[in-house]
Amino acid sequence: MKVLYRQNGRTMIRFDIGEEFPGALAEWCKGEDINSAAILCGIGMLKNTEIGRYDGESYNREKVPGPSEVLSLQGNVSLKEGEPFVHLHVSLADDELNARGGHLFFGTVAMTVELVMLELGTDLVRLPSGGDFWQLDTGG
């Protein structure tokens, strides 16, 4: 992982081959004491990815062995049970250019992941809201 730019709450980060994602981002946020951010955009390539869709009670998960091109990546960072939690949605394309997407649970960087995030000036938290869903709220 390399921070390419960080100024005035705006950050551009590159993740490298073999890094676990978004776990590496959550660890970096923890080390930098970042409790809230908007992940504005991201591109790259992931493999061994798990995505899912929430049906109102639980997540339906699907493994995508990949590698898959990351067409779009966005989300946020908040605190969940006191630790940085990265909530991302992703659109992926396979080698035949078929696209699929959903909540990103995890993946391994296959080539690179490049993202831009904006740190926010307030703490955001995840609160239990029934089932597997944790609702985003303010810390106060």
Total number of domains: 1
- The fourth-level CATH homologous superfamily is Hypothetical protein, similar to alpha- acetolactate decarboxylase, domain 2
**CATH architecture assignment:** 2-Layer Sandwich
N-to-C order of helices and strands:
EEEHEEEEEEE
Rough shape? globular
Strand content bin: over 45%
Query: Which fold name is given in CATH as the topology?
Result: 60s Ribosomal Protein L30, Chain: A
Uncertain spans: none
Counting DSSP E segments of at least 2 residues, the number of strands comes to: 10
Helix % is under 10%
- The level 1 CATH classification is Alpha Beta
Q: How many helices does DSSP assign?
A: 1
Protein described:
With 140 residues, the protein is mainly beta. It has a single domain, classed as 2-Layer Sandwich (60s Ribosomal Protein L30, Chain: A), CATH 3.30.1330.80. The protein is 6% helix and 67% strand. Strands 1, 2, 3, 4, 5, 6, 7, 8, 9 and 10 form a 10-stranded mixed beta sheet that branches. A hairpin with a 5-residue loop joins strand 9 and strand 10. The protein is globular, with a radius of gyration of 15 Å. The protein starts with a strand and ends with a strand.
